[in-house]
Amino acid sequence: MNQRGLSGAVQTALLLPLAIGLLLATLQWGMVAWANATAVAAVDQTLHAAAARGGDLVRAREAGSEVAKGALSDVSVKVWRSGAVIEASVTGTANFVMLPVTVTHRGERPVEESR
After folding, report:
1. Could you tell me if 64 and 89 are in contact, meaning their C-beta atoms sit under 8 angstroms apart?
2. Residue 88: Cβ within 10 Å count
3. How far apart are CA 86 and CA 19, in angstroms?
4. Which one of 58, 70, 79, 97 is separated from 21 by 20 to 30 angstroms, measured CA to CA?
5. Once rounded to an integer, what is the mean pLDDT over residues 52-73?
6. How do residues 76-99 score in pLDDT, each as one tens digit?
7. Residue 64: helix, strand or coil by DSSP?
8. Radius of gyration of the chain (CA)
């Protein structure tokens, strides 16, 4: 031990886990941000497919599920009509390093009218 404090090995033993934890937390944050952006895109795609003239809700759900692949696991895409409005919800688990995080996004869009 030197006269100014802890030895280099002790300093490394104390600081290395902190640095690794910070790195893992940053990776986790990035994966959750990616999952949120993907959920927004999946809801948008689902609404777009369902709101089109003659839009099929089953195909819209499949379109949303296809977009959500990769960033989300255990994906649940729900889409329904409420009068002249289409509503959709996407829920899934973000890919994770430390803790699983559930991501949910919901949106609505008016149904396109045929002329």
Report:
1. no
2. 27
3. 47
4. 70
5. 91
6. 999 999 888 999 999 999 999 889
7. helix
8. 22
